[in-house]
Amino acid sequence: MRFASIIPAALALLLSGPVYAQSWGEFTDRQDHFTVNFPGDPKVESITYKSEKGTSLPAKLYAAKDARGGEYSITVVNYASAPSEAGTAISQAAKAIRAKGDVRYDGMEHTNNMKSQRVSVVLPDSGRYLLSETLMDHGRLFILQADTPPKMPPPAQFQASLQVLDDAGVAIRYKNPDTTERAR
User: Under a CB-based contact definition with an 8 Å cutoff, are residues 79 and 92 in contact?
Assistant: First the structure.
């Protein structure tokens, strides 16, 4: 009789392993100056990002999937070799997101008082929901995307977790969007 009561507990422990491995946690990359919550460790890939003018820029793509079928990524593009194009980087990235489907929300935001563009799109064919947040700071373009299955809310823990870091690894928050004066 005692043995029979242990079986359900043992099964629960065995089956909870994959769920535990999918838990969300903070991921930090000091070299690319950001921290964000991901469902597990992201896959990191060096890529080339093409600007609207056709300039090839070095970038890194960080991507992870959760157990429910959501796909989460942040692309960090280094505009150091094309500073004259940095002024249109946010609008260019938002334009590319809009082109992916039916736009449900498109607005300027202020993430930590950094100008940003938030775009929500329903993707054609699959009905998946794509939420994007794009911002620029110190010559880096950050493109945050959450692609979730239909009828599943996009996780706020991903979108709201993005922090841009300074060289010392401290999160940056400006006093207002029109200054680089830091809030303390």
Answer: no
User: In what helix (H) or strand (E) does residue 121 lie, and over which residues does it extend?
Assistant: strand 114-122
CA 17 to chain centroid, in Å, comes to 26
Neighbours of 143 (CB within 10 A): 24
Cα–Cα dist 35/165, whole Å: 7
Interacting residues of 169 by C-beta distance below 8 A, sequence separation 6+ = 28, 30
DSSP conformational letter for 127 = -
92-118: b (≥16 Cβ within 10 Å) or e? bbbeebeebbeeeeeeeeebbbbbbbb
DSSP 31: T
What's the rounded Cα separation, in Å, for the pair 7 and 2?
9
Helix (H) or strand (E) holding 104: strand 102-111
Q: Could you report the per-residue pLDDT of 139-176, keeping only the tens digit for each? A: 999 999 999 998 887 777 888 899 999 999 999 988 88
Distance separating alpha carbons of residues 110 and 63, to the nearest angstrom: 24
Helix ranges restricted to H, the chain = 2-21, 89-98, 156-159
What pLDDT score does 7 carry? 46
Structural domains in the chain, sorted by start: 24-164 (3.40.1000.10)
